[in-house]
Design brief:
Strand content: under 5%
Distance between the termini: 46 Å
Structural class: mainly alpha
Radius of gyration: 15 Å
Order of helices and strands: HHH
Number of domains: 1
């Protein structure tokens, strides 16, 4: 169980940084947990960027 949590956490960080590790993703024991973390991390990063852009637009900053 600890390995699965560690794989997910690492995947989340890699996904947020948009730098997934193909070797970890194909690991037979923890690859699924890592890939789930990558997706969750990517979605979290996207949400953060989207909210930042919305806030800038609401302030009138079009850049």
């Amino acid at each position: 169980m600890d390995d699965a949590i560690e794989a997910y956490t690492t995947g989340h960080a890699d996904g947020a940084a948009r730098q997934p590790d193909a070797a970890r993703a194909t690991d037979p024991a923890t690859g699924a947990d890592y890939r789930t973390g990558v997706v969750d991390g990517s979605v979290a990063a996207f949400e953060t960027e989207l909210l930042d852009k919305i806030r800038r637009l609401m302030r009138g900053d079009r850049g």
